[in-house]
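Case 441 in the screening queue. Each case pairs one protein sequence with one candidate compound; here the compound is uracil. For every case the pipeline is the same: read the inputs, emit a complex structure as tokens, and attach any notable structural observations.

Predict complex for case 441.
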Amino acid sequence: MTMLEILEKKKLGKPLSRAEIRFFAQAAAEHTVPDYQLAAMLMAIRLLGMTDEETVELTLAMRDSGDVADLSSIPGVKVDKHSTGGVGDTTTLVLAPLVAACGVPVAKMSGRGLGHTGGTLDKMESIPGMRVALTEEEFLRQVREIGVAVVGQTGRLAPADKVLYALRDVTSTVDSIPLIVSSILSKKLAAGSDAIVLDVKAGSGAIMRDLDSSLLLAENLVRVATLAGKPTIALISGMDQPLGTHVGNALEVREAIDILSGRAGGDLKEVSLTLGGYMLVLAGKVETHEEAVAMLERALGSGAGLKKLAQMIAAQGGDPRVCEDVSLLPQAPVQKQITCGQSGYVSRMDTAALGMAAQGMGAGRLRAEDGIDYSVGFVLQVRIGDRVEPDTPLCVLHARTEADADRAEAAIRRAITVGGEPCGRAKNFLGLVTKDMAVRL
Ligand code: URA
Ligand code: CA
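Case 441 output:
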């Protein structure tokens, strides 16, 4: 078998066999065929699509291109949660301790931020002393002992995806449903959980901007994951504004702690409880989603979730006192309140631009090797639909310098539209996809 033969078959629209797809994924992981042949295949897939069978085979082949985590030493059903990426989206730090406090183990491998979206590992590293690079043995032992660990990849997960993703970026083939599905699911399957809750974002800060394409992606993700043997559900959630009020690493940890302490509510809390509720349902802990959310609310109200977060921080070398005293988190030297400066209704936010504003302050990276400043970012004080006056607080900037604060202020003002007409609030959930149904909410 040669890559040229496989390309000729795909070009003619014939479905590839399992062996041919394995050849392609293995060649990507091991660099045994040139990038131009891999790139040609990516464009053929982008233009001609793949059958479900081909997408399942590609997903499994990419999973098997590296290590597959073995979580079998952890008792119980392990449920993973994956978000397609957003701004101010700290659901993992809220729901992982709450789900664990309800007796369902959470063995989670998370990622770093890139572009306008934040990454859970970077947020966790803003906690003084916190380690996210655990060995596989440390990771498994921590989940067995305290029920929760959130870490970076413990092995070499889906190396074929690393190579293919980098090529997609430079060949205009990122926006292919079979390529997105196999990319996301190969890594989720390699992470070893028994079931998956997916949070597919829709809106101005999301990979799929409109609801139709987000639903299509969610349906494909659920169908392929189910065919691959992992019970999976997907929620479509709104990314027309940052999910939480806080954007920036230490600021987002602060909001998660505020929620787990009962001091804060809002959309981040609602989305975290909803996603966490589906994790409890898939784990078989309760029958209905209502019961699951009530159970999570009790874990929050009793302080059990906050206690679990403190245990996780301590187990990973971090200072658990941040859970009682958020002022121990890194603080930016410049803090500046800005007001709306006009009257009207908050009608639109360019979420990606808001993420870029935080990145420009130093909260995110332009390139994978860049360093980040954990303390910087901003706290938004308005939501879509709010009526505002010139002196209504818009946001508090947390910056390294006055000049950084001024630049961020200008970018944030450009990203938030205040119009004359009243407008409705943005919905948190737009759709739900299970193996049996897809509904708009
Ligand atoms: N996230 C991934 O991991 N892969 C994609 O292709 C898109 C989003
Ligand atoms: Ca392994």
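Case 441 observations:
- The chain has three domains: 3-63, 79-324+430-440, 330-419.
- The pocket of uracil (ligand 1) is lined by residues 84, 179-180, 183-184, 207 (CB under 6 Å).
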